[in-house]
Structure formats: structure tokens, C-alpha cells
Write a structure and sequence with these properties.
Low-confidence stretches: 31-35, 261-266
Helix content: 25-40%
Shape: globular
Protein name: HNH endonuclease
Distance between the termini: 46 Å
Strand order of the largest sheet: 6-7-12-8-11-10-9
Strand content: 25-35%
Number of helices: 8
């Protein structure tokens, strides 16, 4: 298909692009037969066993490679692998200094842990931007960034400008013994002074804050001259865990095969 690439804006042959990187889905599968993927879709409120991945003709080949090279390869490699139970990102923080602690959350020294902050920032921005700029409404988060920030982030991702001044990233690293192997498409909500954009990959929660007033956090980022913060936390103790569980059990209708599996095991 020859059309305008959403990132570089040049008319080229478009590739089949994934909304969430293809490599992430391999991290969801366990080595036994129980490692089947369940897809829950908010646009039609359904859940089902499926291998379907959300794709569209969206980027040219060069921009696909740019996404892979600048963040995707490293972040996907280092997230939790439910098949091998290896979690390289968390291991990198084993001996890292804890800067501050609030209940189960620990603010970490990502400089000491030798983490590639730029790769995580680029990856998170690419996912949130993709969902906002995606052509189809189903499973995306269309126009969630708004026209101004969507264009600013597009230029950043295409190496035309720096990361937006009023945008910051918090990366949550799951400390649970067996991190929950989940992928979620970005969701957005408005707060006083900013918007927040959240998505999950196995073992990692991403929170992108966009706006002029993010409160006291802005002082932390400014003091450290950084756009990225890393936290250790327990997903099982986080409000998102109960919210997701309740939502899946009450708001989503399982297909017949999944319904039978639920009856057998619950």
C-alpha cells in the first residue's frame, strides 16, 4: 500500500505495523499449554482466546526500523518473560540505591543501575503516540494526546525535535514473585494540570504525564535534569490490579470457549 507514513509524513510503501510490538506477545506465552493469550477489547466489551494482534498499514519500513532501533528492541528484551521467568530490567535494579520510599513503592537511582533512559522514553512515547495517531478506533486511543502534543511527540520520534518540555515518564517495575504477564493498550485520563497515559507490558507499567502542572513531581525531574523516573512496586497491591480483575469479570463478555474454561476452573 502506497500512502503517507504517519511518522515521517512521506508517501511510501507502508508496512503492516503493530500497535503493540510483536515481540511482546511471545513474552506472554508459558511453556505449558496454559499459556494461551486472552484478548479483552474495550470497544466491544468482549474477551476471547486468540492469537490476534492489532495491526494496520501505518508506518514505512524505515520508520518501523527507527522504532525498533531506538527503544523497542531493548525494552522488549528486558521486560518479564513468562516462559523463562527471567526479568532483566528488574535484575538491573537489584543493587540500585533507593532514593525514596512510600509504602511498597521505591524510587530508584536509574543512573546507578546503568539503565538506558533514552530507550525507555522513546519506547513509551512511541506507544502512546501510536495509539493516539492510529487510523482505526478499535483498540486504539485515538487523539488522546491532542493535536499539539501529538505533533510534538511525532517530531521527537522522527528526530526533528527534542522531547516535549511538559512531558515526563514514570516506569514501574513489578516486584511480585511472579509478575502478571499482561499487555494493555494505552488509556488516558485528565487530571488537574495534566493528562496521564498508562499502558502495560509484561512486568512493567508505563505512566506518561503530559501537561504544564504535574505537581511536586516536576521538582524531582528538574532537580535530576531527567525526564524519566523508575519505581519498584507490587502490581498485586496496586489499585490497577483489583480494577482490572473487577472490570474483566463484570464488564467484558467472554466468548463461548473462554466461558467454558472459566466454568471448569472457577
Amino acid at each position: 500500500m502506497i500512502e503517507e507514513c504517519a511518522l515521517c509524513l512521506q508517501v511510501k510503501e507502508l508496512k503492516v505495523s503493530h500497535l503493540m510490538p510483536k515481540g511482546l506477545y511471545k513474552k506472554l506465552r508459558k511453556s505449558d499449554c496454559s499459556g494461551q493469550i486472552i484478548l479483552s477489547q474495550s470497544h466491544n466489551r468482549t474477551s476471547a482466546f486468540t492469537d490476534m494482534q492489532v495491526t494496520d498499514n501505518f508506518l514505512c519500513g524505515e520508520c518501523e526500523q527507527k522504532f525498533s532501533r531506538n527503544g523497542e528492541n531493548l525494552v522488549v528484551r528486558d521486560c518479564y518473560n513468562s516462559k523463562t521467568e527471567v526479568f532483566p530490567l528488574r535484575s538491573n535494579f537489584d543493587e540500585s540505591k533507593v532514593i525514596a520510599q512510600h509504602f511498597d513503592k521505591q524510587l530508584l537511582d536509574n543512573v546507578e543501575a546503568n539503565i538506558d533512559q533514552g530507550a525507555y522514553l522513546y519506547f513509551a512515547a512511541s506507544i502512546v503516540w501510536r495509539a493516539s495517531a492510529w487510523k482505526r478506533k478499535e483498540n486504539s486511543n485515538q487523539n488522546s494526546l491532542g493535536p499539539v502534543y501529538q505533533e510534538q511527540i511525532r517530531k521527537y520520534l522522527n528526530n526533528e525535535s527534542t522531547f516535549p518540555e511538559n512531558a515526563y515518564l514514570i516506569v514501574y517495575v513489578d516486584t511480585d514473585l511472579q509478575p502478571f504477564p499482561m499487555i494493555s493498550f494505552p488509556v488516558s485520563s485528565k487530571r488537574v494540570g495534566y493528562h496521564q497515559h498508562i499502558f502495560y507490558i509484561p512486568g512493567v507499567r508505563f505512566l506518561l504525564l503530559v501537561g504544564h502542572d504535574i505537581g511536586e513531581l516536576k521538582e524531582y525531574f528538574n532537580d535530576r535534569k531527567s525526564k524519566v523516573a523508575f519505581l519498584k512496586y507490587s502490581y498485586q497491591q496496586h489499585p490497577d490490579c483489583s480494577f482490572v480483575a473487577n472490570s474483566l469479570s463484570t464488564d467484558f463478555k467472554p466468548n463461548s470457549r473462554l466461558k467454558d474454561e472459566i466454568r471448569k476452573n472457577v
